[in-house]
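Q: Second attempt. The first request was missing the SMILES, so the protein and fe (ii) ion are both included now.
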Amino acid sequence: MENANDSSGPARPDTMEIAYDELCGALAAQDLTGLWRRDGLGAQPTPRTRPHLWQWKTIAPLAKQAGTVVRVNERGDARRALQFCNPGLQMGTTESFFGAYQYLAPGETAPAHRHSPAAIRFVVQGKNVFTTVNGDACEMTPGDLILTPNWAWHDHTNYGSDPIIWFDAIDHPLVAQLESIFFQEHPDGMQEVIGHNVSERGFGAVGLQETSMSASVSSHSPLLRYPYSEVDRTLESLHAAAGGASVTVEYKNPITGGPAIATMTCEMTRVYPGVPTTPQRQAGGRMYVVFRGSGTSVIGGTEFAWSAGDVFVVPSWVPVEHNVSEQSDLFVVGNRAVLEALHLFRKAELDEQQKVTGVFAKD
Ligand SMILES: [Fe+2]
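A: Got both inputs this time. The predicted holo structure:
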């Protein structure tokens, strides 16, 4: 006679289901999970970062309003910056960076602090302002790039009669993901100014470097200020020689040839009217600041119309192409420097222009 308690035979489906649920429960109780329950790796990136655009005509009045209701000079961690919050992310403008527009009124100072996230400033509007970086007061005029490398003391001073708005990019989301945020206020509020535009003196001409500068090789560029006048001249001469729909230069560390900031790739792309740029995609999200000009970009099939002062985002591996109605300068910050250091960077060109399937409108 067959034993009713014999369990050596194949399990019935309902028994297996109960056993599976019991196993999953037992794993969860021990802070474990089965890898078979996770989604598989995708064939290519599926970014949570969304293509998005913020318009200058919306931002500028809000920045001005913040200038009247938000104070900046009380605590070292306080900055009057309007952060661009990507609707696809809980934190960040892209997966790696926060972008922001910072507003400093005439006569104001933003006190000194330092932090492990690195940042850059790109001036959009205003002058007679300097950012002091480790004692070097770097003058800020439209189109200039100022570095505030990680753990460098920095404060801001508006000594003019007009407000200034500049674009901040900070690798805060990247460093936060690595759980490596450190921050310190300067004990004296503002740091002592040693000199003005000191870092530029050692790099006055192509291929020439003041000899004592060789001692200052570090993780970031010893050059802290990149004037727009030099970028403009370089782009113009490159395009005069080669032509094409666009030309791009990268801001480099003049000692090592690496990126100006280890975690950031900063570029300026000049786009010329006539024909659209070749559609391309690359790993890593990018933030674009329209410094001059106007035009459209097709990002993943959606058309974004932009003009000076607008900011837009191209997520990782989403194709992008530009078409301008006038000569336009796009300042771009991305994380290619990080991906290349980790041997993860990829890029590709598309064979044909993207088909436009929609036009961007804010929800
Ligand atoms: Fe800061």
